[in-house]
Amino acid sequence: MLANLSLNSAVKICVVAPNILQFRFPDSHHITMECDAACLADILTWKTDASGPEWAEMLRASDLDLDNGIAEDIVQSLQNICVLIESANKTKTLGEAIFMHAHLLTKSAKSSFEVPTINKVSIVGDGVVGNIVSEIVTQMSLGQSGCAQESEYKIIVSDSPAFGSIREVYKSSGEAKFKSVAWMDEGSFRIGPLHIKGESACFECFLSRTEATAHFFEEAVSFNRGKRGNERSLEIGLMEKNLIRFLIERHLRLVVNGQFNIIDPGTVESWNLLSGENSTVPVLRNPYCDCGAASGRPTKAIRDII
Length: 306
Ligand SMILES: [Zn+2]
Prior knowledge:
Layout: E1 5-7, E2 12-17, E3 20-24, E4 30-34, H1 37-46, H2 52-60, H3 70-80, E5 84-86, H4 94-105, H5 107-110, E6 120-124, H6 127-139, E7 143-145, E8 153-158, H7 163-172, E9 178-184, E10 188-196, H8 203-213, H9 217-225, H10 238-256, H11 260-263, E11 267-272, E12 278-282, H12 302-305
Helix pairs in contact: 2-3, 6-10, 8-9
The protein binds zinc ion (ZN).
């Protein structure tokens, strides 16, 4: 059965001139076409839900004066550029619409490799960050399970950079297709590296790399491995919570949709509370780390595929 198509609510239609119509996309890539602009804009915005042949019939019956077959081609082209999308993919909020648009644009590229489905997320750890992750997992209708159970994605959470306990929890939480750590650091919230089993750097790789590149080696090792001194007594306030909420939801939506071209596995992303800036640090795999594939080489690099 043919899926019904609707106008993508993330796309704006702008009548530039009587014969010029522009589609404006949320990622700032715009497409301009020559046609009876007002007529096509009316058709696209008039009917909200119809099958492909019905859309083609509406175009044929209009004042656009189309030759045979052209109407079908236009409907197909509008689908290819995500102006018309399957009605089931319509969203309610601006954020959802933007993420759906990005997902649909790369859908055909992602069909060339297997994007694991995430049915269950394990949240390992507690505190404010853990509560926010739990709320968002529920909001996104993903299942939750304990860390000992099967889940495709394990996210280790901490309200402070207590690396001594984070690394213990990380190790004891067991394997999963995806794993990452989200923690509130001194002045920043950090998340990553998104570890794809056997393919990209893990949290241990991140710690060993930061030690290897530190100018002050003893201090770095003490901070990364110490069990005392990294805990914080200050509570996490509303501003911090809102930042964490945004970053966790963005992160989870990208992982669930397989948007590895944006999330870039093997990187740690940080957002600074004071400056408002974000930075991304690439983390190379440590070839001596246990997280590697049996051969010591990644079986494939997802980010090279897209
Ligand atoms: Zn590793």
